[in-house]
Amino acid sequence: MAVACGVKVLRFSVGFGRPLLRWRRPGSPTEFVLGALPLGGYVRMLDEREAPVDPAERNLAFNTQPLRSRTLIVAAGPVANLLLAVLLYAVVNWSGLDEPKPVLSSPVAGSLAERAGLRGGEWVSATAAADSDPQAVASFEDLRWRLTQAALSGEDLTLWVAREEGSQGQPLNLPLSTLSVKEADAQLFQRIGIAAPWSAPRMGEVMPDGAAAAAGLRPGDLVERVDGHPVTDAQQLRALIRRAVGPSGEAVEQRWDVLREGRTVALVVRPAPVQQDGAWTGRVGAYIGEPPAMTTVRHGALDGLGLAFTRTAEVSWLTLKMMGRMLIGEASVKNLSGPLTIADYAGKSASLGLTSYLLFLALISVSLGVLNLLPLPV
Length: 378
Known about the structure:
By secondary structure, the chain is an alpha+beta fold.
């Protein structure tokens, strides 16, 4: 953009610090550099505020350009970040994403969802914020995003819930405005009570030295009852295991009835006490719950592109709102992360697959675009 506006570009650098590699195209005034610290990049232009400029080249300096040109140059980088986010979201929408179906697990005890009347196993077909029309829910992740937006905005959210897939169901109001949310973290969904998609309370991998193995549990066992109480899903079973610890950290026995190869087997399980965050919790040394039912969310060319613009705009607005709330003390500065944290999460998302990595890159691109458009020092 600087070149297009008639500004002389002295250096285009990917990375900071000592140059590892540099070259210049014949006839070009621009030096291209690969820096030693891969934490960003920069463009250095001819500018009278940085160094003396030859009067013959004063018309090529950035500071002598009209306001329109300077605005275009400064905005070009952030706009490129936002357009990259749109492209990344569009690629994900076009290629398709396997996500859990919007079926709710048992709500967290004492949570907003439990008080609202949710019991687990409900299908969520649509949601609606205040004064808006219902929008269809494509997946559980789609529902989580809408819950996050509504909670951070202090708005109630209406869910259309049913017992069968394909049914519109009945409206149920979640008074998210009563939560006074300051940041989007794992505790937010614990307070809401919608923490995971529904999955059957079936035993997965059993560790050979854990409490589950000692009790005789096997992979594939379907847990029907614990201490005589019916178990409806894996979320409920995990909660029962965590609570199987006495006030002083002593183990508490539980009687489990499991369905194994068509017959019911009674077992005595003693979850091992583990101290976590200053409190005792029970562990059995096994993976609890079978994978949730999945659905492939894929969109056509125009719909996918339109949704990509919408998601980029939503994330941009959410970023601005969170920054504003941090400035007035209503949100934690823990929402900010530096280059090392970003690199850490980039590695984690890459290990989950290409789609997760593209979504993470889109989020970072939106953040950079929004931050660099603000009138704040770097």
